Each structure stands twice: as C-alpha cells, then as structure tokens.
User: Which sequence fits this backbone?
C-alpha cells in the first residue's frame, strides 16, 4: 500500500483505519491461476476507552507497517500508593 491509500480517523471515541489496495497487474507472458493477496477496500473500527488523549493520537507508516499511537490519559496511568506504618 501507499501512504495515500490509508486513512486513519477518530470520531466519538471510535478509531477507524480504512483504505484501498489496488490490483497489481504486472503479469508477464503467462496467466495467473491463484493470487494470495487480496485487493479492494478495507475498513476496521476500534472503540477506544474514554481514558485516552484523543488530541494526541498519531499514525506513522514506514516499510509497509502502519503504527497508530494512542496515549493514555493521566488519570488512566497507574499510580504508586505509599504504604504507611501505623
């Protein structure tokens, strides 16, 4: 896929990754009986928990791998509780 063929959106707590894989037609001198890779449109939606920082969501695409970063909100991070001796 190319970067231009991938779309990432966040709306009302739902992260959606969609895009379209174009058909590859570089067959030379022969016929294809079976293709292992699909082509066409795709879409995946994930409902995010409310404890994320929606304004800091980011996506990068490098070497065919899409990475989506969704940072946790401060209130969702674990906290250390001090144990007191009584």
Assistant:
């Amino acid at each position: 896929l190319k970067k231009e063929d991938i779309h990432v959106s966040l709306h009302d707590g739902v992260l959606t990754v969609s895009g379209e894989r174009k058909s590859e037609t570089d067959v030379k001198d022969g016929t294809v009986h079976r293709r292992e890779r699909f082509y066409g449109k795709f879409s995946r939606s994930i409902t995010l928990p409310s404890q994320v920082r929606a304004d800091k969501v980011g996506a990068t695409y490098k070497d065919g791998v899409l990475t989506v970063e969704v940072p946790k909100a401060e209130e969702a991070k674990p906290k250390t509780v001090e144990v007191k001796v009584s």
Residues 14 and 47 are 4 Å apart (CA to CA). The beta strands are 6-11, 14-21, 40-47, 58-62, 65-69. The chain has no helices and five strands.
